[in-house]
Amino acid sequence: MTDEQKLVHFQERIDAGEKIEPKDWMPEAYRKTLLRQISQHAHSEVIGMQPEGNWVLRAPSLRAKKILLAKIQDEGGHGLYLYSAAETFGIDRSEMIEQLQTGKAKYSSVFNYPTLNWADIGAIGWLVDGAAIVNQTMLAKCSFGPYARAMVRICKEEGFHQRQGYEIMAKMMAGTNEQKAMAQDAMNRWWWPSLMMFGPHDSSSAHTSESMKWKIKVESNDSLRQRFVNRTVEQAHHIGLTVPDLNLTYNKETRNWNFGDINWDEFWTVVNGNGPCNHQRIAHHIKYHREGEWVREAAVAFGKKQQKQNSLN
Ligand code: FAQ
74 near 165, Cβ under 8 Å? Predict the structure, then answer.
């Protein structure tokens, strides 16, 4: 087949809902987009452990601490599945880590905001994981097999994360006036960054149209953001929280909550590395990655020893 015929055949497979596997023929741009997106996603999971890790030693009870530890470990696990999915393209994990640490690879903007009090842990679980579920349930239908399969398990775990966050918020909203104020303050600070997680509007999103043609994304940034808003506004009202948006109105015809303008200047400042915690997040990653060097060396040496023994047996 000529390259042109291969491309037609590839598109037919995508349109028929078939999964593309790592050894199948694929256009270079499909490979490149997926590698960019999956590695960015993996980095987000791993960097996302930092804002929450900040609260492990200050969790208000043993129960809260156990839940938070389990959640953070899950996020590390998600990073591992995603790095493995990206490695099916032949890239080495160390190369992806280098891209993260040198600023060549992005990670989700939302993890560049600080966690100032315990209610932030509730807001992250409820809003950030809530947004991640909406996005990732869509990605579980992605055309690339290893990514879609990783998403199925990740979404199940994100469901638990979202509920633990909502439980923290609900408990605080049923507490003292001070606790209610803390929950509302966290809501005020995390609402807009959570909406930004879905990326730029469809009209200015560089990758959406090609990604949708290839079913890398099966829904657009704006449509997912709207679903998240519709779902989350109801949950906020249910526990007495106010959504920090004076333009929020319910449209009975479309059954959507219309919302105000997103601050895109803030979004791009954060994406381009100048948000409140960008430098801190990367410096922390570099420090602990270096400290873990001996563990990686020992694991590689052990693997080689096992291989040698297996070949002798
Ligand atoms: N932050 O053309 P688009 C989680 C970039 S996991 C930073 O729309 P695309 C779990 C984008 O890369 C959260 N950069 O791009 C958890 C592109 O830049 P480039 C992470 C962003 O890829 C919870 C440019 O802007 N989830 O939360 C962002 O088609 C709690 C143009 O944008 C994923 O990564 C952003 N928010 O759509 C963990 C999901 N938005 O590369 C710990 C997978 C856009 O051309 C604790 N990713 N950009 O220079 C996706 O679904 C997509 O990549 C989008 C962006 C929707 C994020």
Answer: no
Compute the distance from residue 235 Cα to the ligand 1 centre, in Å.
Answer: 24
- Minimal CA–CA distance to 108: which of 39, 162, 157? 39
In whole angstroms, what is the distance from residue 226 CA to residue 232 CA? Answer: 10
Q: What pLDDT shows up at residue 97?
A: 97
Structure tokens at 248: 């929020």
User: Which ligand 1 atom lies nearest to the CA of residue 36?
Assistant: 41
- Which pTM was predicted? 0.96
CB 48 less than 6 A from any atom of ligand 1: yes
Angle made by CA atoms 293, 77, 236, in degrees to the nearest 5: 130
Which protein residue has the closest C-alpha to ligand 1 atom 52?
A: 37
pLDDT on residue 312: 86
Selection from 160, 158, 128 nearest residue 232 by Cα: 128
Let me know if 48 is exposed, middle or buried by CB neighbors in 10 A (0-12, 13-18, 19+): buried
At 313 the pLDDT is 77
Residue recorded with tokens 């590839």: 10
What number of helices (H) and strands (E) belong to the chain? Answer: 14, 2
Instruction: Identify the CA nearest to 164 among candidates 122, 206, 132.
Output: 122
pLDDT in the model for residue 1 = 84
What is the distance between the alpha carbons of residues 297 and 235, in angstroms, rounded to a whole number? 47
Q: What are phi and psi of 226, to 5 degrees?
A: -65, -40
Say what the pLDDT of residue 181 is: 98
**Residues lower than pLDDT 70 in the chain:** none
Give the separation between CA 286 and CA 291, rounded to whole angstroms.
9
**Separation between Cα atoms, residue 148 and residue 216, nearest integer Å:** 9
Nearest atom of ligand 1 to the alpha carbon of 138: 51
